[in-house]
Amino acid sequence: MTRQLDFDPELLRRYDRPGPRYTSYPTAPQFTPAFGEAQLRQHIQRSNAAGHALSIYAHMPFCASPCFYCGCNRVITRDTARGERYLERLLAEVALAAPLFERSREVLQVHLGGGTPNFFRPRQIGQFLGALAEQFQLSSRPERDFSIELDPRTVSPADIAELGSLGFNRASLGVQDFDPQVQRAVNRIQSVEETLAVVRGELDRLVAEMPAEARERAGGLRPVAPRAQVRRLQLRPRRRSHSSIHTDSVTIHGLR
Predict the structure, then answer these.
(1) d(C-alpha 69, C-alpha 183), whole Å
(2) What distance in Å separates the CA atoms of residue 38 and residue 233, rounded to the nearest whole number?
(3) Less packed terminus of the chain by CB within 10 Å, N or C?
């Protein structure tokens, strides 16, 4: 049976226009000279009055090499000293911004994006999280979401374990394409093996920590299809060990 698709011409006309990149938030149209320090403080005061939980995003802009498709704010360098200087400024900004927010407000989400956040060593990322913990009330609830974007080409199992010990419970891995010709064209050479090594390593660790019943349910997991647009493997264990990264979910993003 053939199903008739109904198209709304008015809806199509409404959204048939350029829009801001989702990687920018607030999006570009919200940045105007009319919004300055006074307006920022007013917004924060209203936010404090509402008393909702906080979410913190930190941009880590450095990449060792450029991916030609990327439109994010980035700095291409292999000079780790630039990362140290950036971290100093980031810590200074935390110290300036934190007093504006009510200390009683819980930080339920922390996300490090880039760039390539694992351009920084786990020690440096731990220094940043430590500064946040001194200035904000970081949540310890199971439903908290502390996430980090990782480049599978430059992260090791030891790094992931250390990031887990710092409190991260979500990782986002970038995969654009596994076709060698496409990889050369976008300047991102990344094998299936090194990508799946990161995914499988975390899934193996997670499954090993599961209760027997949950482990049986997870037994049907299959390897990630290499040419997937998006493959999401999500597991919710009943209990968690504090000895390693507590990966609730692994998301692989792709363009094709």
Answers:
(1) 11
(2) 44
(3) N
At 111, list the tokens.
Answer: 């996300």
**Residue 40, SS3 per DSSP:** helix
Nearest to 62 by CA among 110, 125, 107: 125
pLDDT per residue over 195-207, tens digit each? 888 887 666 555 5
Q: In sequence order, what DSSP letters do the residues of 122-188 get, joined into one string? A: HHHHHHHHHHHHHHSEE--STT-EEEEEE-TTT--HHHHHHHHHHT--EEEEE-----HHHHHHHT-
Other C-beta atoms lying within 10 Å of the C-beta of residue 137: 17
Please say if the pLDDT value at position 59 is more than 70: yes
Residues 6+ apart with CB under 8 A from 195: 152, 173, 175, 252
**Burial class of residue 165 (count of CB atoms within 10 Å of its CB; 0-12, 13-18, 19+):** middle
pLDDT at 227 (0 to 100):
38
- Residue pair 137/172 in contact by the 8 Å Cβ criterion: no
Quick check: 125 and 117 in contact, CB under 8 A? Answer: yes
